Protein backbone atom coordinates (compact mmCIF):
# COMPACT_ATOMS: atom_id res chain seq x y z
CA UNK A 1 0.00 0.00 0.00
CA UNK A 2 1.31 3.43 -0.88
CA UNK A 3 2.09 5.80 1.96
CA UNK A 4 1.47 9.50 1.86
CA UNK A 5 4.63 11.42 1.21
CA UNK A 6 5.23 14.38 3.42
CA UNK A 7 5.63 17.61 1.51
CA UNK A 8 8.46 19.89 2.50
CA UNK A 9 7.34 22.84 4.53
CA UNK A 10 7.99 26.00 2.59
CA UNK A 11 7.29 29.52 3.74
CA UNK A 12 7.20 32.02 0.93
CA UNK A 13 7.92 35.62 1.69
CA UNK A 14 5.38 38.18 0.59
CA UNK A 15 5.51 41.95 0.49
CA UNK A 16 2.42 43.80 1.66
CA UNK A 17 1.60 47.41 0.82
CA UNK A 18 -1.23 49.27 2.52
CA UNK A 19 -2.94 52.60 2.06
CA UNK A 20 -4.68 54.17 5.03
CA UNK A 21 -4.66 56.94 7.58
CA UNK A 22 -1.27 57.87 9.01
CA UNK A 23 -2.81 57.93 12.48
CA UNK A 24 -3.30 54.12 12.35
CA UNK A 25 0.15 53.33 10.93
CA UNK A 26 1.78 52.26 14.20
CA UNK A 27 -1.22 50.14 15.22
CA UNK A 28 -1.09 48.36 11.85
CA UNK A 29 2.67 47.73 12.23
CA UNK A 30 2.17 46.40 15.78
CA UNK A 31 -0.64 44.06 14.73
CA UNK A 32 1.26 42.72 11.72
CA UNK A 33 4.41 42.27 13.84
CA UNK A 34 2.49 39.87 16.07
CA UNK A 35 1.75 37.81 12.95
CA UNK A 36 5.44 37.62 12.01
CA UNK A 37 5.63 40.49 9.52
CA UNK A 38 8.54 42.93 9.64
CA UNK A 39 8.41 46.65 8.92
CA UNK A 40 11.02 47.27 6.23
CA UNK A 41 10.03 50.81 5.35
CA UNK A 42 13.45 52.10 6.42
CA UNK A 43 15.40 49.37 4.58
CA UNK A 44 17.45 49.88 1.46
CA UNK A 45 18.70 47.24 -1.01
CA UNK A 46 22.12 45.85 -0.06
CA UNK A 47 23.56 46.81 -3.45
CA UNK A 48 22.77 50.44 -2.67
CA UNK A 49 24.22 50.15 0.84
CA UNK A 50 27.40 48.42 -0.35
CA UNK A 51 28.09 49.58 -3.92
CA UNK A 52 31.72 48.47 -3.61
CA UNK A 53 30.59 44.82 -3.80
CA UNK A 54 28.50 45.23 -6.94
CA UNK A 55 29.84 43.18 -9.82
CA UNK A 56 31.70 40.76 -7.52
CA UNK A 57 28.87 39.22 -5.53
CA UNK A 58 30.10 35.63 -5.87
CA UNK A 59 33.62 36.56 -4.76
CA UNK A 60 32.23 38.42 -1.77
CA UNK A 61 30.08 35.42 -0.82
CA UNK A 62 33.10 33.11 -1.15
CA UNK A 63 35.24 35.31 1.07
CA UNK A 64 32.46 35.63 3.64
CA UNK A 65 31.89 31.87 3.76
CA UNK A 66 35.64 31.24 4.04
CA UNK A 67 36.00 33.73 6.89
CA UNK A 68 32.92 32.31 8.63
CA UNK A 69 34.56 28.88 8.48
CA UNK A 70 37.72 30.50 9.92
CA UNK A 71 39.87 29.31 7.04
CA UNK A 72 42.72 31.05 5.30
CA UNK A 73 42.94 30.92 1.53
CA UNK A 74 45.80 28.47 1.92
CA UNK A 75 43.78 26.17 4.21
CA UNK A 76 40.80 26.28 1.84
CA UNK A 77 43.12 25.49 -1.06
CA UNK A 78 44.46 22.44 0.79
CA UNK A 79 40.95 21.18 1.60
CA UNK A 80 39.55 21.68 -1.91
CA UNK A 81 42.55 21.09 -4.14
CA UNK A 82 41.94 24.49 -5.76
CA UNK A 83 45.18 26.50 -5.96
CA UNK A 84 45.36 29.35 -3.42
CA UNK A 85 46.08 31.79 -6.24
CA UNK A 86 42.81 30.80 -7.92
CA UNK A 87 40.87 31.29 -4.67
CA UNK A 88 42.37 34.77 -4.38
CA UNK A 89 41.44 35.56 -7.97
CA UNK A 90 37.86 34.28 -7.42
CA UNK A 91 37.45 36.40 -4.29
CA UNK A 92 38.69 39.47 -6.13
CA UNK A 93 36.46 38.92 -9.16
CA UNK A 94 39.32 38.16 -11.54
CA UNK A 95 38.32 34.50 -12.07
CA UNK A 96 34.88 32.95 -12.39
CA UNK A 97 34.05 30.17 -9.98
CA UNK A 98 32.20 27.68 -12.21
CA UNK A 99 29.76 24.96 -11.22
CA UNK A 100 32.23 22.19 -10.32
CA UNK A 101 34.31 24.48 -8.14
CA UNK A 102 31.18 25.99 -6.57
CA UNK A 103 29.99 22.50 -5.61
CA UNK A 104 33.40 21.66 -4.13
CA UNK A 105 33.54 24.97 -2.21
CA UNK A 106 29.98 24.55 -0.92
CA UNK A 107 30.75 21.08 0.41
CA UNK A 108 33.98 22.20 2.07
CA UNK A 109 32.49 25.39 3.52
CA UNK A 110 29.31 23.60 4.66
CA UNK A 111 27.09 25.78 2.49
CA UNK A 112 23.73 24.16 1.66
CA UNK A 113 23.44 25.50 -1.89
CA UNK A 114 26.43 25.75 -4.22
CA UNK A 115 24.62 28.30 -6.39
CA UNK A 116 25.41 31.12 -3.94
CA UNK A 117 28.94 31.02 -5.38
CA UNK A 118 27.84 31.43 -9.00
Overall pLDDT level: 89
Give the SSE string.
Answer: HHHHHH
**Biggest beta-sheet profile:** none
| Fraction of residues in H or I helices | 40-55%
CATH A-level architecture of the domain at 55-117: Orthogonal Bundle
| CATH T-level fold name of the domain at 55-117 | 434 Repressor (Amino-terminal Domain)
The CATH class of the domain at 55-117 is identified as Mainly Alpha
List how many beta strands DSSP finds: 0
Please name the fourth-level CATH homologous superfamily of the domain at 55-117.
lambda repressor-like DNA-binding domains
Poorly predicted segments: none
Number of contiguous helices: 6
Beta-strand proportion: under 5%
Structural class: mainly alpha
Distance N to C terminus: 43 Å
Shape, per Cα inertia axes? elongated
User: What does the radius of gyration come to?
Assistant: 21 Å
Amino acid sequence: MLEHTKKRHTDKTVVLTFLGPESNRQAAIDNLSRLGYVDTSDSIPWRKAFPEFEGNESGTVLRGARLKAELTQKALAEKTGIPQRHISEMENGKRTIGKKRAEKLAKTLNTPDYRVFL
